[in-house]
Design a protein that fits this description.
By secondary structure, the protein is an alpha/beta fold. It has 2 domains: 86 residues, Rossmann fold; 125 residues, NAD(P)-binding Rossmann-like Domain (Rossmann fold, 3-Layer(aba) Sandwich). Helices cover 41% and strands 16% of the residues. Helix 1 packs parallel to helix 10 and helix 6 packs across helix 7. 46% of the residues are buried. Bound molecules: NADP nicotinamide-adenine-dinucleotide phosphate. The site of NADP nicotinamide-adenine-dinucleotide phosphate has 24 residues, from helix 10.
């Protein structure tokens, strides 16, 4: 069997078009502010892409670039002023921030109504409580859309999520639980990972280790979502799943790149529009 390719790039493009149409009808211009501290090249690319996507969608975006040695108070005062700015509906602090900054304090100081990354305790709590008024972290939200595009009814499926980060693994597990999956969360201390993966109807890998999930770990007919982004020796990107081998068993699988990645920005736009509508 050869798996259906889950085309996240095409799905995200269609979603962005729908969002642009929604923005036109909205009557207000949703505004996203992105804060970048330092000059990490990867972060600069991510921020640029976010700003570009915002503008293409008809939204307003502002970028706040601070030097790598900016003190906590300076970053905090940018967040405080954006919290108070009625034209800004979404605030995103690009992570990671330099080590001298207390990122938890900064993140938790973002107004939950503008927390488009879904990382404040209020939004995390709403996700766990099943309160739909919260903002859901973008990458897991986008991953769930891709899964549901393959199979609408996930009730009773065994979903295995490898990774338990606040940004991805934990919210992904909550979203799958809300879809009535039986969810197993695996992490670096998990024993018998291979045996656990072999039971997965839905396997989501978010570790950051190139091709650690082997083809024979994939159950026949599984949906495989590969969140990992790893740079190989030849400079090319690959995921956490050994794609070529896994597609022999899987029913559907995301490629890297072109799978989950494009969904993150599309869902960031979606969250900013949701925040603007709620404001
Ligand atoms: P993270 O915070 O580093 O978390 C990695 C998780 O993997 C941790 O929970 C860790 O377990 C677990 N882990 C590490 N080694 C393991 C092993 N040998 N077996 C099983 N689990 C293991 O990373 P993250 O932010 O969640 O991101 C994960 C990957 O997804 C990265 O490659 C990142 O670049 C990618 N990502 C992509 C997008 C996108 O837009 N496409 C967005 C977010 C992340 P412990 O908790 O026990 O340490």
């Amino acid at each position: 069997m050869s798996a259906k390719l889950i085309d996240g790039k095409a799905f995200a493009a269609a979603l962005r078009e729908d969002l642009a149409a929604e923005v036109k009808k909205l009557g207000i211009t949703p505004g996203l502010a992105v804060i970048l501290v330092g000059e990490d090249p990867a972060s600069q690319v991510y921020v640029r892409n976010k700003i570009k996507a915002c503008e293409k969608c008809g939204m307003k975006s502002s970028e706040f670039v601070l030097p790598a040695d900016a003190p906590q108070e300076e970053v905090q005062s940018v967040i405080d002023s954006l919290n108070a700015d009625a034209d800004i509906h979404g605030i995103l602090l690009q992570l990671p921030v330099p080590d001298h900054l207390d990122s938890d304090t900064l993140i938790q100081s973002i107004d939950p109504a503008k927390d488009v990354d879904g990382l404040t305790f209020v939004n995390q709590g709403k996700l766990i409580a099943g309160d739909k008024s919260g903002l859901v972290p973008c990458t897991p939200q986008g991953s769930l859309m891709l899964i549901k595009d393959v199979e609408e009814n996930l009730s009773g499926k065994h979903a295995v999520v490898i990774g338990r980060s606040l940004l991805f693994g934990k919210p992904m597990a909550q979203l799958l639980l809300a879809e009535n999956c039986t969810v197993t969360t695996a992490h670096s201390r998990t024993q018998n990972l291979e045996e656990i993966c072999k039971q997965a109807d839905i396997l989501v890998a978010a570790v950051g280790r190139a091709k650690m999930v082997k083809g024979e770990w994939i159950k026949d007919g599984a949906i495989v979502i590969d969140v990992g982004i790893n740079r190989q020796d030849d400079g090319k990107l690959c995921g956490d799943v050994d794609f070529d081998a896994a597609q022999e068993n899987a029913a559907a699988i995301t490629p890297v790149p072109g799978g989950v990645g494009p969904m993150t920005i599309a869902c960031l736009l979606k969250n900013t529009i949701e925040a603007a509508k709620a404001a």
